[in-house]
Amino acid sequence: MLRMSVTCPPYQPHPPHRDRSAGKSQWTIPEAAETVVFERAWDNGWVAGAVGWGIYAEDGEIALDLGISDDGERSLWWAKFVGKTDPWHGYPADLVRRQEHDAPAVSVARAWHEAGHIDKVALSRIIRKQPCRPS
Questions:
Q1: What is the mean pLDDT of residues 97-107?
Q2: How confident is the model at residue 6 (pLDDT cuts 50, 70, 90)?
Q3: Which pLDDT score, from 0 to 100, does residue 47 have?
């Protein structure tokens, strides 16, 4: 995984993912927690180029409700962050709706597995771009 710089770049929540904009997944965690998810992704190297992925942990367990799908049907448990512009911004990733775009990089999924955040089944499903749960 490659980082764009050593220090964590600026991050700013993106309003369409908080204001119930049509077609946009929505954060269910507070903005401050959203920023922590980004900073943790950066600090752990879960970033490749201008794209990163993060998970939200509460009491050492991955929270399965970091966000909700745009149709309100699915709880989402990882986020995608993009740094094509400064500051970076992100959203709850929806593998069902955006399979090719919201799947974490294989290197990130492997890092999550090696850190004990996801099991082997979840790792395999993420690599195959299939919906899954972390345990």
A1: 87
A2: low
A3: 92
Listed residue (90, 111, 115, 133) closest to 46, CA to CA:
111
Task: Report the first-to-last Cα separation within the chain, whole angstroms.
Answer: 24
How many residues appear in the chain?
Answer: 135
Nearest to 116 by CA among 44, 68, 34, 49: 44
How far is it, in rounded angstroms, from Cα 126 to Cα 96? 11
Q: Which residues of 1-12 are buried (b: 16+ CB within 10 A; e: fewer)?
A: eebeeeebbebe
Yes or no: say if 1 and 45 are a contact pair by the CB < 8 Å rule: yes
Alpha-carbon gap, residue 82 to 126, rounded angstroms: 19
Question: Residue 117 has which token pair?
Answer: 């955040």
pLDDT digits (tens, 9 = 90+) for 11-42: 999 999 999 999 999 999 999 999 999 999 99
Q: What would the mean pLDDT of 56-82 be, rounded to a whole number?
A: 91
DSSP-derived letter for residue 19 is T
